[in-house]
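During the no-cost extension, the postdoctoral fellow (Dr. R.K.) reprocessed legacy sequence entries with the updated structure-token encoder. One reprocessed record is reproduced below for audit purposes.
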Amino acid sequence: MKVAFSPPRIDDLVVEAVSKALRSGWITTGPRTKLLEEKISAYCGNPKSICLNSATAGMELILRLFGIGPGDEVIVPAYTYCATANVVVHCGAKVVFVDCRAEDFNISVPEIRKAITANTKAIIPVDFAGFPCDYDEINALVNEAEIKSLFKPTSDLQAKLGRILVLSDAAHSFGAKYKGRHTGILCDVSVFSFHAVKNLTTAEGGAVALNFPSPIDNEEIYKDLNRMSLHGQSKDAMAKFSGKASWEYDVLEAGYKCNMTDIHAAIGLIEIERYDEENLAARKYIFDVYSAAFSEYECFQIPVYETEEKTTSYHVYPLRIKNITEAQRNRIIELIFEKEVSVNVHFKPVPMMTAYVNMGYSAEDYPNALQNFRSEISLPVYYDLDDEKINLVIDAVLESVAEVIGELK
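Re-encoded structure tokens follow.
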């Protein structure tokens, strides 16, 4: 392909950092992972963060720590990646899908309100494409007296919070801002993804940014998550080798295995240092060039990515083509690929997936999500996408759309 979709930025700095980690003799969770956790909290402004092997693991650990299980309901946008809903299913709770807003793909707060019941234990808003959700409105909603009166805690942590948990799926939005504040401090907990295609990558990985209000102690939650992520052990590897005869440990619960390694953290430490000035700046430039080119034609719906209150992380550029069918969209994608340009679709609504159809869900119940899916094409956005390749993308899209719908206006 002449233009890839989203290759990671792997340069000499990254290679050397990983080599140093390998040569250090400490390659599992260790000093580099702990340092990355500190840098994430310093960047976002939240009290404490923990790095794990994926954002998915982070969301599931939080739900389990909060005591969510059978009989509980968790509100999730229909327009998201399946991981957001899968973790709810893993916990034995019921996924309650709600529709997105037509203008920016994000979860609709009025639809959240309609979906809340006495069984609702958590809401998972998703910052689609890196654009923050309406957090002030969501936080205000869960703190309304009438909504709080419905909440019946079934765990100590639920009782301490005293209301529905707001757990942000911020997989796309590291570095995004809402009313001048970074994602990571916009609600109770935010979970980031550092997967290979994300803005900030550790190859595989993620982080949980803790921001619980008092009287919940975020330091204690951090310790709980550390224990849960290492099979429930009372000590991690660093603690077991910190001194003479410190090998002994206990297993306090049947935990999980989802810690981040120092090899992965070494990549993240390079990336976070150059994130704003290099990565975000390059991605914003690409967004702006795309928008300038496609806004000349009425058939395109330009994604919302900057407003007075919100700034995206410029993760995904979700271009929509007005008044086309799903079949036309698919044909356009085929034609773009024939021109050796990689594009994608974000996302098939989760209620369309076979596993969820078999549970009784239907995408037809979420018309905005369904319409957005049928008209959306995600364009390449990555650090090394230069002007020549950007123009190849633009030309491929314009030519392919014209081949399907006729002359562009």
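The two ends are 29 Å apart (CA to CA). The CA atoms of residues 148 and 163 lie 5 Å apart. The remaining legacy entries will be reprocessed before the final report is submitted.
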